[in-house]
Input
Amino acid sequence: MPQDRLAVGREAASAAAQLTLEYFQTARFAVERKADDSPVTVADRSAEDLLRKTISAAFPHDAIVGEELDDKEGSSGYQWILDPIDGTKSFIHGVPLYGTLVGLLKGSEPILGIIEIPGLNERVFAAKGEGAWFQQGQGDLQPCQVAEIDSLADGLFLTSSFSGFAQRGAEEAFTQLRETAFVSRTWGDCYGYLLVAIGRAHLMVDPLMSIWDAAAILPVISESGGVFTDWSGKPTVEGGEGIATTPGLLPSVLEITGPFSERR
Output
C-alpha cells in the first residue's frame, strides 16, 4: 500500500470532517431530499468537494466515486470511494455519531479505509497488511483489535436502521439478533463500525448499504482482526448490506441472516 495515498487520504478526511463541524449543531443549512428520499445538505456537498480537490491535486489520474457528486474517471487503477457525511440524519439532528468515510480500491480490491468522527474527535484508519489504528484527538495511535468473544449472548449488537430490516422483509432477523444479544443499540452508521474495530462493540449489521458506506469499512474491520461480509458471508463492499464482527461470532450471525440474504 503506497504510504503517500494513505497520508493524502488521512489529510483529506480530516479536513473534510472539520469542515462539517462549521455546520454541525447550527441552523445554517437547509435539508434537501434526494431521489431516494434520503437527506442531503450543503455540508455534505462542500465536504465531498474538498475531499475530491485534495485527492485530485495529489493523484490526478485516480478515479473518484462519491455519494453526492458525479463520478470522476481515472487511469491509474486506483479508485477512491467517498462518503462526506455518513449518518446525515444524525448530523442534521445535532447527534455527533456521524462520520466522514474515505475508501480506496486497487482494481476491485479495498485496500485502504478511513473513518473520521469529527463530533467526537476520534478516528480509525487502516491499510491492507499494515494494521488498523485508532486515535482520540491528537493522542497516540493505538492498534485496533476486535473483541474476542464467541457468544452473541455476551455481546453488543448495533445497527443503523430498524426500518431497513422491514424494508427487505427481514424483521425476523432483527428480532433474533436483538433477542440473542446481551445489549442492542442503534449507535449506527460508521460509528458502529468504529466501535467494532476497537473492541467496544461486537456486532454491527446493516440491512441496506451502498459502496460508499462499505468501501472504507472492510479494510478497517479486516485489519482489526475482524470480518466484514454480506449477509451470506461473502467479504465484499458491493453486497448492498453488511456484517462486521469478530470471527468467533460470524457463524452464529450467518445462521440468522443467511435465510434473508436474497431478500433485497
The two ends are 34 Å apart (CA to CA).
